[in-house]
Amino acid sequence: MKEIIFKEFITRLDKNLSNVNEEISESLKEKEKQERIEASLREREKEVHRELAAHFRERDKERENHLHQENVESFNALLIDLIRSPSVNWREAKRILKKDHRWELVEMLSRDEMEQLFDKHLANLIKKKREKFHQMLDELKDLNLSTTWKEIRRQIKDDSRYLKFSTSDRKCEREYYEYIKERLMVAKNNFKQLLQETKLLTYKTKQLIEESEQHLQDIINVLQNDKRYLILDDFADDRRQILINYISELHHQGPPKPITATDPSTSSSSSTTTSTTTRRK
User: Is 147 in contact with 179 (CB distance < 8 Å)?
Assistant: First the structure.
């Protein structure tokens, strides 16, 4: 009887121990699960903090860029309002600018950046004055490529665009001849274009001129009907050399290739295919 009771006790004890083990196991699993959740939440919290920090840095950067752009625009407005002569140096300009109350709005800009913006402003002033000076010269109907500065100066001496360009007559003269140089270059390019449009000029022209000088005169007679030829009357030697060079270039190039010309390798391949097809038949 005692043995039976003891066995039953052992059985119940084993069962209780098993239940306890299961409860402990479940408790450990639950604890591990909770720890994983907590670790995940901590990692997510760190990620959120990183994202927020990046967002704030980007926002601060955008705000800083916007503020910088406002400073640049304010400084450019100061330059436009107060610096109207390209002869002013940076030291003089800074003294003028500092007297304006808007100077406080641009102090965020570095000295180097201010000087760069100042130099850009001066370059723009010079460009505008140069454009107006050239526009004035364009309006002179009797101006040609050989007109001297002395002749022109008498006509423009009261024009505000001349007076505002520079107080130095030598500088105005230098700019005038720079203008003439540019016009001469354009005139020569236009004449070359005329030669390309002239159908009388071919790869045979050089030989025809060697056989008869009258052929060259016939060509000139045709070209004389175009103002692109006439505008170079004061540079006849240069014009003639351009014509001779173009004729020599055409002679060197030889006859133009026929439009129907095909690649030799393609023709050879085509012939081989045709021959093979014929043999098969």
Answer: no
The 10s digit of each residue's pLDDT in 123-172 is 999 999 999 999 999 999 889 999 999 999 999 999 999 999 988 999 99
pLDDT in tens, 217-271: 999 999 999 999 999 999 999 999 999 999 999 999 999 888 765 555 555 554 4
Amino acid at 139: E
d(CA 134, CA 178): 10
DSSP H or E segment with residue 261:
none
Give CA separation, 131 vs 23, 134, 187, in Å. Answer: 94, 5, 19
- Alpha-carbon distances, residue 107 vs 101, 118, 119 (angstroms): 11, 14, 18
Q: Which long-range contacts (CB under 8 A, 24 or more apart) does 185-190 make?
A: 187/145, 187/228, 187/231, 187/232, 188/232, 188/238, 188/239, 188/242, 190/228, 190/231
pTM summary value:
0.66
The sign of the CA dihedral 194, 197, 198, 201 is: positive
Q: How far is CA 79 from the centre of its chain?
A: 25
End-to-end CA distance of the chain: 116
At position 34, the amino acid (one-letter code) is Q
Q: What is the pLDDT of residue 277?
A: 47
